[in-house]
Each structure stands twice: as structure tokens, then as C-alpha cells.
User: What shape does this take?
Amino acid sequence: MACKLRESDINWMLEKHPGLHYIYERDIICGVFSFRAQYGEGPIISDHYTIAIFCNYPADSPLPAVCEINGRIKQMSLLLGIPTADLHLNGDGTLCLIRPDKFKIWYPEGFDIRIFEQNLVTHFYWLSFRERFGKEPWKGEEHGGIYNFD
Assistant: This one.
């Protein structure tokens, strides 16, 4: 069930987000991930995050690991006075993008780069909204223990 980004996935992401680039030797997509999004009647948010997408890590995950690499989420937690976990940042610095029990809802046919990109946009919209307005745009997912993605 491990995710492995294909060359076509990488090329699609780089074309869609020109602020990103691919480091072949490390198998990492990194750089500035920009988005413009609106959910429901909420505000339109245009923002960007500096990220690293580890294309084939962790080996047992159906999604690549993603890290926000400028410390913005950690700064948010300090300014908002909440733990980084409440901003869906795992202890190892990776983003908590999806609960494993929701994986099949988001990815009914397995990993898809276009759905993954929307997963990132949704995640970053939620963070940017929380940073700007001090509250969640919608109820964040509950934290859970270790789940099995199967």
C-alpha cells in the first residue's frame, strides 16, 4: 500500500505549482506551494507555504510525507497559544494530512496526485484561516492513535 510518486505525478505537480522543484537525488519535491481557495461561504484565501514532499517516504504510508520547512506552523502555535498538534503538525515535523480511517473516502481508487494536491490546499487553507482569524473555518479532525490504512 506504500505510495510511490510516478514521474507523471511529479511533472503534474511541478507544472501546477511552478514555485516547486524536484531534487532528483533525494526524491523530494520542495519549494513554495501557493494556492487560492474558498470553501463554502468562507473568504477567498491566497497564501503560500514552503514545503518538502518526500515522494517515497514513509515506505508504509499510502501518502508521501509533507513538511512545512520554514517553521510557520510552529510560530502559529506560539501566537495562538495552542499545541502544534492542534494545527495538525506531527511530532516528527510532518503534516497530519488525513486520518487513516478517512483515506478511502478521499482516495477511493488509491493515491491520486490531483486529490493529494487538493488535500494540501484544503489543509493549508484551514491553517491560513486559523492563523488569520484565530478560529477554525470548520471543525478540525479529531486526533487518534495509530491506524491501519488498509
User: Anything to note?
Assistant: The chain has one domain: 3-133. The radius of gyration is 15 Å.
